From TrEMBL:
Record flagged with keyword Transcription: no
Record-linked Pfam families: CDCP1_CUB_6 (PF23665), CUB_CDCP1_1 (PF23667), CUB_CDCP1_2 (PF23668)
Domain CDCP1 third and sixth CUB residues, every copy: 451-555, 756-869
Domain of life assignment: Eukaryota
CDCP1 first CUB domain boundaries: 66-142, 263-325
Protein name per UniProt: CUB domain-containing protein 1-like
Residue ranges occupied by any CDCP1 second and fifth CUB domain in the UniProt entry: 149-254, 332-438, 659-739
Organism: Esox lucius
Length: 1077
């Protein structure tokens, strides 16, 4: 074999053509053959030359190859193009012959002559080696004991650079077994979809005696080295280009088929019969039970051992069962469970059904439906169903069906059979039929059909097709057409019979006719086979076929028709593009509320469509309303560092495509923050509210916040107490509304430095409002090892009652949970609790504070907290605190003073005490001042040896000095306010006046004396005739009663008040004014 590559004549093509013409003139001088190009005509002499010139000219436009080969003797070699290209694009030419032979043969496929040198010229726009395939066929004839030739020979060097298929056709006589032996490396059986990776693939096709074809595929390097085949066989070997093959692929031998005998235990199922039949051509094959043998048919009703004298190919097995239907129900359903009974035999499962007289039996296919096919075809899964009816005129085949299509119900009159054919070695996958008693019908059968949505074509056949429809019989098809669809009936193939002429006594005309009835209509539309059938009609309908009494001199009635369905409305078209720089992602989903709604992307029906940034899509919506579609969109926002981030921004919904007239139901912003930073979210106006029990977000607009890992923070809406939310991670914000197109800007966004907590809420509680603070994603628990804080800002002169209404603590595996409360101005913790400590229900916080929660790594349970903040006025609580403090001090005095007095009785010592007494509107007096005269207090006349308890204080009321003091006190100038001594920094005294109207809930009247505590609210019994002064208040203490030995007055000076504690300091008047106001 010689190979020559074609030259490229692209720059010399005209000269090359002239040279070819000159050569042509020399060869054909005297023959009158085309001396000049302009004189050439398409004569039998000139045509080969012109074709050769065109082929050679194409070589400079495409790839070409010229080679010479010589096939072996008795070998048929076919060279053909493996691509679907025209002759001008890809061809092979036979340019061989003698010196004077100028015939050129060019085609897409050539068959080479064996044992002769052939020069081939390949020309193709594609690479030649991949554009052409070579088939090399050899025939092997076998007798009963040998084959000729005995080897599957090959020609290794022939077309080695091409893809080759080596085929050997082996023929053997009947009752002869063909044996094939392969090389030592053996073969490995593959599945139908498997491919051999090394480029060598064997295929063995076996043709059985009954015409069936079996195929097996093998690859090299396996355990199969020997095959016995009892039939005609074709062996092929596909070799990829460049692969080498040996001169001998296999060896073939033949030997007579031995009489096979196989004993099989046949066990029928309950209420069933196994019928075994022998192929009529295999007369020597028998079925033996014991010593009794049968050659044609054997029935088995119970477990029986059967000896088969031939292979399973010559036997057919029928497994039959009877189902009887009464007037109410049938005795069972048509279902055949998988079993290993005669698995390698060709099997037919049959069910004989019988209904009540005049009634039908009904077959329902509830799962996948059935598809009617012509009897000449087989089903893809090799499971073929046949429904037959038995009438007085004989048996009629209603139809042959496969699983999965539009026929949902078949009603058969009185008596019939359902059969399922399964080939040998095929796993049984039956379809379950529901068998019930059907209605009364006066026709062979009724087929109910559910036509599919969209565009479809479904074919149907009359009974016995392609044979004659039974005489004087009726058959009906009930079609359910989807809404908003049009249907058209087309007759593909039919035969119109010759009807017998009836006598004058017959009233009905003897003719073939059709009747159409629409759902809900009474009037039937009658037509013949030649009349136009319904076109572009709507609504469900039925079609009834009536046959006549046929004259048997001509073919009878047969009908093959098609029902085509298409949508009746026009789609709404929209071209949507998402620019790359905007980063928008659109998602459109069919909600499935309306089955008529059909959504397509680039003419492909989809249930969900996603349009990514930088892409375009042509959308169409057919019979879809706004409630049928759900439109959502999203956008990613982020920056690389805080320096590059804008100070703040506003989240707004971009404009949607104008043609997309679907309300935008949600929009999601994905905020990607830089490392070591925080995203701050706050509303443009007002505040946010977390959706919680009793405070659900039931308005038109709501937000869902989630961290970058998908952990939910919660749902939020407007009109709440949350001023700002800070998150230390990427955040997704999903806004949901009925129509987001109409909403204003949603949130302001800024980026700041990293915070220590996972989330921080800044809240400002409201007076008289249920201020709830809940952990993120309430009622779900906090994320493990996360922290959350609330900065609670209180108004001036208001304090907070913090109530923990719901606390759920987990079992911690690592670390602890913490609940901490501290004020903003103090690092001291007011509250600190762990998960194993007893919780505090209520806490009073006097000013703005932090509430911090930290989660552990839980082993069980979750950590979640729900608290409520209630604002209270500080003034009311301040007054109540004073009353409580005074009461506690008085109680302590009543207990301690008797003890002190008792101990002082036993002591006699002189104590000189100095007392500083502040006199209002007078000068300061120090102890020892000359104004005070010598009195009884300077001697020991006031010391008693014993004291009568009843007279401890009573005698003092009769002392003249004390009476004068009391009288002077009431006769002095009236005082309308309580005056407290507060020294100035420079040491000079100052009078600080606190008006009575600053005390909450106490009316002020000028020039009227008011005690510190009203007598009705004090612990002292009321004394209406005794004047009550400040010293009578339980919060008042006279210093003169401190340093005396017997608790008597030391002198008769003015009363000096003593402040009990520093906690009752009067607040800033400005604060009180703000609180009251």
């Amino acid at each position: 074999m010689s190979i020559r590559l074609c030259l490229n004549f692209s720059s010399h093509a005209p000269g090359y053509i002239s040279g070819m013409l000159a050569l042509y003139r020399i060869r054909h001088v005297g023959a009158g053959a085309c001396p000049r190009l302009q004189d050439m005509q398409l004569t039998p002499t000139c045509a080969p030359a012109l074709l050769g010139i065109v082929i050679l000219l194409l070589c400079h436009l495409s790839e070409c190859l010229q080679m010479t080969v010589r096939p072996d003797k008795d070998v048929t070699v076919t060279v053909s193009s493996s691509l679907l290209l025209s002759l001008e694009q890809c061809s092979v030419c036979n340019v061989s012959g003698g010196e004077n032979d100028t015939q050129k043969m060019c085609d897409t496929s050539l068959e080479l002559v064996p044992d002769e040198d052939v020069t081939l010229l390949f020309n193709c726009t594609e690479p030649v080696q991949s554009a052409f395939a070579i088939q090399i066929y050899r025939k092997i004839e076998c007798s009963k004991d040998s084959c000729s030739p005995a080897t599957g020979a090959a020609q290794p060097s022939l077309f080695q650079e091409f893809n080759r298929t080596l085929v050997w056709g082996l023929s053997v006589p009947d009752k002869t077994v063909l044996s094939l032996d392969f090389p030592a490396e053996g073969l490995k059986e593959m599945t139908e979809s498997g491919l051999c990776q090394d480029g060598y693939q064997y295929t063995v096709n076996m043709i059985s005696t009954n015409g069936g074809v079996g195929s097996k595929t093998y690859c090299r390097n396996g355990s199969v080295t020997h095959l016995d085949i009892p039939s005609q066989t074709t062996v092929s070997l596909q070799v990829h280009n460049g692969r080498e093959v040996g001169s001998s692929i296999f060896t073939a031998t033949a030997k007579p088929m031995k009489k096979q005998s196989r004993m099989i235990l046949v066990t029928p199922e309950p209420n069933s019969i196994v019928i075994i039949r022998t192929d009529s051509k295999a007369k020597e094959c028998n079925m033996c039970v014991g010593s009794t043998c049968k050659s044609s048919q054997l029935e088995v009703t119970s477990a029986t051992s059967v000896d088969f004298t031939c292979s399973q190919d010559v036997y057919k097995v029928e497994i039959n069962r009877h189902i009887d239907c009464s007037k109410i129900s049938c005795s069972g359903n048509i279902v055949q469970m998988e079993s290993s009974l005669l698995l390698d035999f060709n099997r037919t499962f049959t069910w004989d059904l019988k209904g009540p007289p005049g009634r039908s039996f009904q077959l329902d296919f509830p799962l996948s439906g059935m598809r009617q096919i012509p009897p000449s075809k087989t089903c893809p899964d090799n499971h073929t169903y046949t429904i037959t009816t038995y009438q007085r005129t004989g048996a009629a085949t209603i139809g042959v069906f496969c699983q999965g299509d539009t026929v949902t119900t078949v009603q058969v009159l009185f008596k019939g059979r359902v059969s399922l054919e399964v080939p040998g070695n095929q796993k049984l996958e039956p379809l379950e039929f529901n068998v019930t008693v059907g209605p009364e019908i006066k026709m062979l059968a009724v087929l109910k059909v559910d036509l599919p949505r969209g565009v479809s074509d479904t074919d149907f056949l009359s009974a016995n097709f392609p044979k004659d429809f039974p005489d004087d019989s009726v058959m009906r098809w009930d079609f359910k057409v989807p809404g908003r669809h049009n249907y058209t009936v087309n007759f593909l193939n039919y035969t119109d019979p010759l009807c017998k002429k009836l006598g004058p006594s017959e009233q009905d005309p003897n003719e073939v006719k059709l009747e159409y009835r629409k759902e809900g209509e009474v009037v039937d539309i009658k037509s013949t086979l030649m009349d136009p059938q319904p076109r572009h009609s709507q609504g469900s309908f039925s079609m009834t076929l009536f046959n006549c009494m046929v004259n048997n001199t001509k073919p009878g009635l047969s009908l093959n028709f098609r029902v085509s369905v298409m949508r009746s409305s026009h789609p709404v078209v929209c071209a949507v593009s998402s620019p790359e720089d905007e980063g928008l992602i659109f998602n459109i989903e069919n909600s499935g509320f309306d089955p008529d709604c059909e959504m397509s992307e680039d003419s492909v029906v989809q249930e969900k469509i996603t349009i990514l940034p930088g892409t375009k899509a042509n959308l169409s919506f057919l019979d879809c309303s706004n409630k049928d579609l759900r439109l959502t969109a999203s956008k990613a926002i982020g920056c690389q560092s805080l320096d590059l981030c804008s100070a703040s921004g506003t989240l707004t919904v971009p404009e949607m495509p104008a043609c997309l007239r679907v309300p935008l139901q949600s929009f999601t912003w994905h905020l990607n923050i830089p490392t070591y930073s925080t995203v701050d979210l706050f509303p443009p106006k007002g505040s946010l509210r977390q959706s919680l029990p009793g405070q659900d977000c039931d308005g038109s607009l709501s937000f869902h916040l989630a961290e970058g890992d998908g952990s939910s923070i919660g749902y939020f809406c407007s009109d709440g107490i949350i001023r700002k939310v800070q998150v230390q991670s990427n955040v997704s914000i999903t806004a949901t509304a009925k129509d987001l197109h109409r909403e204003e800007p949603f949130l302001n966004v800024s980026f700041s430095e990293e915070i220590s907590e996972s989330i921080i809420y800044t809240v400002q509680p409201k007076m008289g409002y249920p201020n709830l603070l809940a952990t993120p994603s309430w009622p779900d628990g906090m994320t493990p090892l996360s922290t959350v804080s609330w900065i609670v800002i209180l108004p001036r002169n208001l304090q907070a009652e913090l109530l923990f209404t719901n606390i759920s603590q987990p079992k911690c595996g690592q670390r602890h949970t913490h609940i901490k409360v501290l004020t903003l101005d103090s690092p001291e913790e007011i509250l600190s609790l762990k998960e194993d400590e007893e919780a505090v229900d209520k806490l009073i916080v006097p000013e703005s504070f932090y509430l911090n929660l930290s989660n552990c790594m839980p082993e069980e349970g979750t950590f979640r907290v729900l608290s409520r903040v209630t604002l209270q006025k500080t003034s009311k609580l301040f007054l109540g605190g004073i009353v409580g403090a005074v009461g506690a001090v008085l109680l302590l005095m009543l207990i301690v003073l008797p003890v002190i007095c008792f101990m002082l009785r036993k002591k006699k010592r002189t104590m000189v005490s100095e007392a500083s007494i502040y006199m209002g509107k007078q000068s300061n007096l120090n102890p020892g001042h000359g104004v005070f005269a010598k009195s009884r207090s300077d001697n020991d006349s006031h010391v008693y040896t014993s004291i009568e308890d009843t007279m401890v204080y009573g005698h003092l009321l009769r002392e003249p000095g004390y009476l004068n003091v009391v009288q002077d006190h009431f006769e002095g100038a009236p005082v309308d306010s309580y005056r407290t001594f507060m020294a100035l920094p420079d040491g000079s005294p100052e009078i600080t006046e606190t008006p009575a109207d600053d005390v909450p809930d106490i009316d002020h009247e000028k020039d009227k004396y008011r005690p510190f505590l009203d007598t009705s609210s004090s612990f002292m019994p009321s004394r209406p005739r005794t004047p009550i002064d400040r010293q009578d208040s339980m919060g008042f203490m006279d210093r003169r009663m401190v340093d005396t030995e017997l608790c008597t007055f030391k002198s008769i000076g003015d009363i000096n008040n003593i402040r009990l504690s520093g906690s009752d300091q009067i607040s800033d008047p400005a604060h009180l004014t703000d609180a009251d106001g």
